[in-house]
Amino acid sequence: MQMIGKAGKAAAIAAIAALALTACGRADTGSSGSSSGGEAFPKGSAIGVALPQKTSENWVLAEKLFNDDLTAAGYKPDVQFANGGVSEQQNQISAMVTKGDKVIIVGAIDGAQLGTQLKQAKDAGATIIAYDRLLLNTANVDYYVAYDNFKVGVLQGQALLDGMKAKKPTGPYNIELFAGSPDDANAKVFFNGAMSILQPKIDDGTLKVVSGQKSFEQAVTQGWKAENAQRRMDTLLAGTYGSTTLDGVLSPNDTLGRAVITSVKAAGKPIPVVTGQDSEVESVKSIMAGEQYSTINKDTRALVEHAITMVKDIQAGKTPEINDSKSYNNTVKTVPAYLLTPVIVTKDNVKTAYVNDPVLGPITK
Ligand code: BGC
Q: Ligand 1 within 6 A of 300 CB?
Protein backbone atom coordinates (compact mmCIF):
# COMPACT_ATOMS: atom_id res chain seq x y z
CA MET A 1 0.00 0.00 0.00
CA GLN A 2 2.75 2.33 1.11
CA MET A 3 4.76 1.73 -2.09
CA ILE A 4 1.76 2.18 -4.39
CA GLY A 5 0.91 5.37 -2.55
CA LYS A 6 4.39 6.75 -3.09
CA ALA A 7 4.44 5.79 -6.73
CA GLY A 8 1.01 7.32 -7.22
CA LYS A 9 2.16 10.50 -5.56
CA ALA A 10 5.29 10.63 -7.71
CA ALA A 11 3.23 10.17 -10.86
CA ALA A 12 0.85 12.90 -9.79
CA ILE A 13 3.75 15.26 -9.09
CA ALA A 14 5.27 14.45 -12.47
CA ALA A 15 1.93 15.11 -14.17
CA ILE A 16 1.51 18.43 -12.36
CA ALA A 17 5.08 19.38 -13.23
CA ALA A 18 4.47 18.57 -16.88
CA LEU A 19 1.31 20.66 -16.86
CA ALA A 20 3.10 23.51 -15.15
CA LEU A 21 5.85 23.39 -17.75
CA THR A 22 3.33 23.48 -20.56
CA ALA A 23 1.46 26.35 -18.91
CA CYS A 24 4.73 28.26 -18.68
CA GLY A 25 5.37 27.62 -22.30
CA ARG A 26 8.56 25.79 -21.44
CA ALA A 27 7.64 22.40 -22.84
CA ASP A 28 9.08 21.32 -26.15
CA THR A 29 6.37 22.02 -28.64
CA GLY A 30 8.39 20.72 -31.53
CA SER A 31 7.14 23.56 -33.70
CA SER A 32 10.48 23.77 -35.43
CA GLY A 33 9.96 20.25 -36.67
CA SER A 34 12.81 18.97 -34.58
CA SER A 35 12.24 16.75 -31.62
CA SER A 36 15.41 17.69 -29.77
CA GLY A 37 13.33 18.16 -26.65
CA GLY A 38 15.40 21.20 -25.63
CA GLU A 39 13.35 24.12 -26.89
CA ALA A 40 12.12 26.53 -24.25
CA PHE A 41 9.39 27.92 -26.49
CA PRO A 42 8.25 27.59 -30.10
CA LYS A 43 10.03 29.38 -32.89
CA GLY A 44 7.83 32.10 -34.28
CA SER A 45 6.75 33.23 -30.81
CA ALA A 46 6.21 36.86 -29.91
CA ILE A 47 9.14 38.71 -28.33
CA GLY A 48 8.39 41.89 -26.39
CA VAL A 49 10.72 44.87 -26.53
CA ALA A 50 9.85 47.72 -24.15
CA LEU A 51 11.83 50.82 -25.07
CA PRO A 52 11.97 54.06 -23.04
CA GLN A 53 11.46 57.59 -24.36
CA LYS A 54 13.27 58.75 -27.48
CA THR A 55 15.96 60.58 -25.49
CA SER A 56 18.73 59.78 -27.98
CA GLU A 57 19.11 58.41 -31.53
CA ASN A 58 20.26 54.98 -30.32
CA TRP A 59 16.75 54.15 -29.05
CA VAL A 60 15.13 55.08 -32.36
CA LEU A 61 17.58 52.89 -34.26
CA ALA A 62 17.03 50.06 -31.76
CA GLU A 63 13.29 50.10 -32.51
CA LYS A 64 13.91 49.61 -36.22
CA LEU A 65 16.59 46.96 -35.71
CA PHE A 66 14.50 44.92 -33.25
CA ASN A 67 11.55 44.98 -35.65
CA ASP A 68 13.62 44.02 -38.70
CA ASP A 69 16.02 41.55 -37.12
CA LEU A 70 13.55 39.70 -34.88
CA THR A 71 11.35 39.25 -37.95
CA ALA A 72 14.31 38.03 -39.99
CA ALA A 73 15.16 35.55 -37.22
CA GLY A 74 11.63 34.13 -37.39
CA TYR A 75 10.04 35.75 -34.34
CA LYS A 76 7.09 38.10 -33.98
CA PRO A 77 8.43 41.43 -32.70
CA ASP A 78 6.26 43.35 -30.23
CA VAL A 79 8.24 46.60 -29.92
CA GLN A 80 6.82 49.51 -27.91
CA PHE A 81 8.07 52.98 -27.04
CA ALA A 82 6.86 54.57 -23.79
CA ASN A 83 6.96 58.23 -24.70
CA GLY A 84 4.24 58.90 -22.14
CA GLY A 85 6.46 57.87 -19.24
CA VAL A 86 6.74 55.19 -16.57
CA SER A 87 3.06 54.22 -16.26
CA GLU A 88 2.81 53.77 -20.02
CA GLN A 89 5.83 51.45 -19.92
CA GLN A 90 4.28 49.52 -17.01
CA ASN A 91 1.08 49.05 -19.04
CA GLN A 92 3.01 47.99 -22.12
CA ILE A 93 4.89 45.29 -20.20
CA SER A 94 1.64 44.02 -18.64
CA ALA A 95 0.14 43.84 -22.12
CA MET A 96 3.17 41.88 -23.35
CA VAL A 97 2.56 39.37 -20.54
CA THR A 98 -1.12 39.09 -21.49
CA LYS A 99 -0.17 38.54 -25.13
CA GLY A 100 2.13 35.70 -24.03
CA ASP A 101 5.44 37.19 -25.22
CA LYS A 102 8.10 34.61 -24.42
CA VAL A 103 11.04 36.92 -23.87
CA ILE A 104 10.62 40.51 -22.74
CA ILE A 105 13.53 42.82 -23.47
CA VAL A 106 13.37 45.98 -21.38
CA GLY A 107 15.11 49.33 -21.86
CA ALA A 108 13.62 50.93 -18.76
CA ILE A 109 12.71 54.56 -18.28
CA ASP A 110 13.04 53.97 -14.55
CA GLY A 111 14.59 50.61 -13.78
CA ALA A 112 13.23 50.65 -10.23
CA GLN A 113 9.55 51.10 -11.14
CA LEU A 114 8.79 47.88 -13.01
CA GLY A 115 8.85 45.32 -10.18
CA THR A 116 5.15 44.39 -10.35
CA GLN A 117 5.13 43.94 -14.12
CA LEU A 118 8.38 41.95 -14.13
CA LYS A 119 6.96 39.60 -11.51
CA GLN A 120 3.85 39.11 -13.66
CA ALA A 121 6.11 38.34 -16.60
CA LYS A 122 8.20 35.80 -14.70
CA ASP A 123 5.09 34.18 -13.22
CA ALA A 124 3.80 33.75 -16.77
CA GLY A 125 7.05 32.02 -17.74
CA ALA A 126 8.70 34.78 -19.75
CA THR A 127 12.45 35.38 -19.66
CA ILE A 128 13.49 38.97 -18.95
CA ILE A 129 16.49 40.68 -20.50
CA ALA A 130 17.52 44.14 -19.31
CA TYR A 131 18.69 46.01 -22.39
CA ASP A 132 21.23 48.87 -22.10
CA ARG A 133 19.84 49.93 -18.69
CA LEU A 134 19.80 47.65 -15.65
CA LEU A 135 16.51 46.70 -13.95
CA LEU A 136 16.78 47.49 -10.25
CA ASN A 137 15.46 46.08 -6.96
CA THR A 138 14.00 42.93 -8.50
CA ALA A 139 14.79 39.24 -8.63
CA ASN A 140 12.83 39.04 -11.87
CA VAL A 141 15.51 39.84 -14.40
CA ASP A 142 17.43 37.02 -16.02
CA TYR A 143 20.13 38.70 -18.11
CA TYR A 144 21.62 42.08 -18.87
CA VAL A 145 23.06 43.11 -22.22
CA ALA A 146 24.77 46.49 -22.51
CA TYR A 147 27.94 48.36 -23.30
CA ASP A 148 30.22 48.54 -20.29
CA ASN A 149 28.73 51.64 -18.67
CA PHE A 150 31.49 52.21 -16.14
CA LYS A 151 34.04 52.06 -18.96
CA VAL A 152 31.99 54.65 -20.88
CA GLY A 153 32.42 57.02 -17.93
CA VAL A 154 36.14 56.26 -17.64
CA LEU A 155 36.63 57.05 -21.33
CA GLN A 156 34.69 60.30 -20.96
CA GLY A 157 36.73 61.39 -17.94
CA GLN A 158 40.00 60.59 -19.68
CA ALA A 159 38.89 62.36 -22.89
CA LEU A 160 38.05 65.49 -20.89
CA LEU A 161 41.56 65.54 -19.40
CA ASP A 162 43.27 64.75 -22.72
CA GLY A 163 41.28 67.39 -24.60
CA MET A 164 42.09 70.13 -22.10
CA LYS A 165 45.77 69.13 -21.99
CA ALA A 166 45.98 69.30 -25.77
CA LYS A 167 44.74 72.91 -25.70
CA LYS A 168 46.73 74.03 -22.66
CA PRO A 169 49.53 71.71 -21.54
CA THR A 170 49.31 72.52 -17.83
CA GLY A 171 46.45 73.10 -15.43
CA PRO A 172 44.73 74.04 -13.33
CA TYR A 173 41.65 73.61 -15.49
CA ASN A 174 38.18 74.97 -14.75
CA ILE A 175 35.45 72.41 -15.38
CA GLU A 176 31.76 71.70 -14.84
CA LEU A 177 30.10 68.31 -14.45
CA PHE A 178 26.87 67.09 -16.04
CA ALA A 179 25.20 63.73 -15.40
CA GLY A 180 22.25 61.95 -17.01
CA SER A 181 18.75 61.36 -15.69
CA PRO A 182 18.70 60.00 -12.13
CA ASP A 183 15.90 57.50 -12.89
CA ASP A 184 18.11 55.79 -15.51
CA ALA A 185 20.35 53.29 -13.73
CA ASN A 186 23.15 54.04 -16.20
CA ALA A 187 23.46 57.70 -15.28
CA LYS A 188 25.15 57.07 -11.92
CA VAL A 189 27.44 54.41 -13.40
CA PHE A 190 28.60 56.77 -16.19
CA PHE A 191 29.22 59.48 -13.59
CA ASN A 192 31.11 57.15 -11.24
CA GLY A 193 33.26 55.93 -14.12
CA ALA A 194 34.14 59.49 -15.09
CA MET A 195 34.78 60.51 -11.48
CA SER A 196 37.16 57.57 -11.01
CA ILE A 197 39.43 59.54 -13.36
CA LEU A 198 38.48 63.11 -12.43
CA GLN A 199 38.20 62.95 -8.62
CA PRO A 200 41.96 62.38 -8.00
CA LYS A 201 42.66 65.39 -10.25
CA ILE A 202 40.12 67.49 -8.35
CA ASP A 203 41.77 66.39 -5.11
CA ASP A 204 45.29 67.33 -6.28
CA GLY A 205 44.13 70.71 -7.61
CA THR A 206 44.63 70.00 -11.33
CA LEU A 207 40.87 70.40 -11.84
CA LYS A 208 38.59 72.99 -10.31
CA VAL A 209 34.80 72.63 -10.43
CA VAL A 210 34.28 76.37 -10.17
CA SER A 211 30.56 76.21 -9.34
CA GLY A 212 31.29 73.77 -6.52
CA GLN A 213 28.59 71.45 -7.91
CA LYS A 214 30.50 68.18 -7.73
CA SER A 215 27.96 65.61 -6.61
CA PHE A 216 25.86 63.39 -8.87
CA GLU A 217 22.70 64.92 -7.40
CA GLN A 218 23.88 68.41 -8.32
CA ALA A 219 24.96 67.36 -11.81
CA VAL A 220 21.88 65.39 -12.94
CA THR A 221 19.77 66.26 -15.99
CA GLN A 222 16.15 65.16 -15.50
CA GLY A 223 14.79 63.08 -18.36
CA TRP A 224 18.08 63.40 -20.30
CA LYS A 225 16.46 66.57 -21.72
CA ALA A 226 18.60 68.99 -23.71
CA GLU A 227 16.64 72.00 -22.46
CA ASN A 228 17.40 71.07 -18.83
CA ALA A 229 21.14 70.84 -19.51
CA GLN A 230 21.08 74.06 -21.51
CA ARG A 231 19.27 75.91 -18.74
CA ARG A 232 21.73 74.69 -16.10
CA MET A 233 24.69 75.67 -18.29
CA ASP A 234 23.17 79.13 -18.88
CA THR A 235 22.87 79.59 -15.12
CA LEU A 236 26.41 78.35 -14.44
CA LEU A 237 27.88 80.64 -17.08
CA ALA A 238 25.99 83.67 -15.84
CA GLY A 239 26.72 83.00 -12.19
CA THR A 240 30.27 81.68 -12.23
CA TYR A 241 32.08 82.46 -15.45
CA GLY A 242 31.99 86.24 -15.75
CA SER A 243 35.71 86.65 -16.36
CA THR A 244 36.72 83.08 -15.56
CA THR A 245 37.52 80.74 -18.46
CA LEU A 246 35.64 77.45 -18.62
CA ASP A 247 38.09 74.82 -19.92
CA GLY A 248 35.99 71.68 -19.99
CA VAL A 249 32.56 70.16 -19.44
CA LEU A 250 31.87 66.53 -18.63
CA SER A 251 28.74 65.69 -20.61
CA PRO A 252 27.32 62.16 -20.35
CA ASN A 253 25.94 62.05 -23.89
CA ASP A 254 25.82 63.85 -27.21
CA THR A 255 22.35 65.38 -26.80
CA LEU A 256 23.45 67.09 -23.60
CA GLY A 257 26.89 67.93 -24.99
CA ARG A 258 25.32 69.83 -27.87
CA ALA A 259 23.02 71.63 -25.40
CA VAL A 260 26.09 72.75 -23.45
CA ILE A 261 27.76 73.99 -26.64
CA THR A 262 24.58 75.87 -27.64
CA SER A 263 24.54 77.58 -24.24
CA VAL A 264 28.23 78.55 -24.41
CA LYS A 265 27.83 79.96 -27.93
CA ALA A 266 24.76 81.96 -26.88
CA ALA A 267 26.79 83.44 -24.03
CA GLY A 268 29.47 84.45 -26.54
CA LYS A 269 32.15 82.37 -24.79
CA PRO A 270 34.80 80.13 -26.37
CA ILE A 271 33.75 76.49 -26.64
CA PRO A 272 35.35 74.38 -23.90
CA VAL A 273 36.31 70.72 -24.26
CA VAL A 274 32.96 68.89 -24.21
CA THR A 275 32.54 65.12 -24.03
CA GLY A 276 29.62 63.03 -25.25
CA GLN A 277 28.32 59.56 -26.01
CA ASP A 278 26.21 57.79 -28.68
CA SER A 279 27.84 58.95 -31.94
CA GLU A 280 24.80 60.99 -32.92
CA VAL A 281 25.02 62.40 -36.44
CA GLU A 282 25.08 66.07 -35.36
CA SER A 283 27.76 65.41 -32.77
CA VAL A 284 29.96 63.48 -35.16
CA LYS A 285 29.70 66.45 -37.53
CA SER A 286 30.49 68.78 -34.64
CA ILE A 287 33.61 66.74 -33.77
CA MET A 288 34.76 66.93 -37.39
CA ALA A 289 34.19 70.71 -37.29
CA GLY A 290 36.32 70.96 -34.12
CA GLU A 291 33.52 71.91 -31.71
CA GLN A 292 32.46 68.91 -29.58
CA TYR A 293 35.64 67.15 -28.41
CA SER A 294 34.61 63.50 -28.09
CA THR A 295 31.83 60.96 -28.32
CA ILE A 296 31.58 57.25 -27.61
CA ASN A 297 30.89 54.66 -30.24
CA LYS A 298 28.40 52.12 -28.86
CA ASP A 299 27.19 50.53 -32.07
CA THR A 300 23.47 49.89 -31.56
CA ARG A 301 23.52 47.24 -34.27
CA ALA A 302 25.93 45.11 -32.21
CA LEU A 303 23.86 45.56 -29.04
CA VAL A 304 20.58 44.59 -30.69
CA GLU A 305 22.29 41.69 -32.43
CA HIS A 306 23.57 40.42 -29.11
CA ALA A 307 20.15 40.74 -27.48
CA ILE A 308 18.68 38.68 -30.33
CA THR A 309 21.45 36.07 -29.93
CA MET A 310 20.29 35.75 -26.32
CA VAL A 311 16.69 35.31 -27.50
CA LYS A 312 17.75 32.54 -29.89
CA ASP A 313 19.66 30.73 -27.14
CA ILE A 314 16.77 30.99 -24.69
CA GLN A 315 14.35 29.78 -27.36
CA ALA A 316 16.58 26.79 -28.08
CA GLY A 317 16.78 25.92 -24.40
CA LYS A 318 20.44 26.96 -24.12
CA THR A 319 21.95 29.27 -21.50
CA PRO A 320 23.00 32.53 -23.17
CA GLU A 321 26.68 33.45 -23.16
CA ILE A 322 27.69 35.71 -20.29
CA ASN A 323 31.00 37.55 -19.88
CA ASP A 324 30.39 39.32 -16.57
CA SER A 325 28.86 37.80 -13.49
CA LYS A 326 29.97 40.26 -10.84
CA SER A 327 29.53 43.91 -11.86
CA TYR A 328 25.79 44.49 -12.03
CA ASN A 329 24.16 43.98 -8.67
CA ASN A 330 20.64 45.41 -8.76
CA THR A 331 20.28 45.31 -4.91
CA VAL A 332 18.44 41.96 -5.05
CA LYS A 333 20.75 39.93 -7.28
CA THR A 334 23.85 40.19 -9.40
CA VAL A 335 22.52 40.01 -12.91
CA PRO A 336 24.48 37.84 -15.36
CA ALA A 337 25.63 40.24 -18.04
CA TYR A 338 27.07 40.35 -21.50
CA LEU A 339 29.00 43.60 -21.82
CA LEU A 340 30.24 45.07 -25.07
CA THR A 341 33.22 47.40 -25.26
CA PRO A 342 32.65 51.12 -25.89
CA VAL A 343 35.16 53.06 -28.02
CA ILE A 344 36.17 56.71 -27.60
CA VAL A 345 36.01 58.85 -30.74
CA THR A 346 37.70 62.23 -31.20
CA LYS A 347 38.77 64.17 -34.28
CA ASP A 348 41.90 61.96 -34.31
CA ASN A 349 40.09 58.71 -35.10
CA VAL A 350 36.73 59.94 -36.44
CA LYS A 351 37.63 58.91 -39.98
CA THR A 352 38.39 55.31 -39.06
CA ALA A 353 35.90 54.74 -36.23
CA TYR A 354 32.78 54.34 -38.36
CA VAL A 355 34.02 52.61 -41.50
CA ASN A 356 31.42 49.86 -41.09
CA ASP A 357 28.57 52.15 -40.07
CA PRO A 358 26.01 52.65 -42.85
CA VAL A 359 25.04 56.15 -41.69
CA LEU A 360 28.24 57.53 -40.15
CA GLY A 361 30.67 55.83 -42.56
CA PRO A 362 29.74 58.04 -45.55
CA ILE A 363 29.64 61.21 -43.40
CA THR A 364 33.13 60.68 -41.97
CA LYS A 365 34.94 59.58 -45.14
C1 BGC B 1 22.08 55.11 -22.75
C2 BGC B 1 22.81 56.22 -23.46
C3 BGC B 1 21.84 57.34 -23.82
C4 BGC B 1 20.95 57.72 -22.66
C5 BGC B 1 19.88 58.70 -23.04
C6 BGC B 1 21.33 55.69 -21.60
O7 BGC B 1 20.75 54.74 -20.81
O8 BGC B 1 23.01 54.12 -22.32
O9 BGC B 1 23.43 55.70 -24.60
O10 BGC B 1 22.57 58.46 -24.20
O11 BGC B 1 20.36 56.57 -22.13
O12 BGC B 1 19.02 58.19 -24.00
A: no
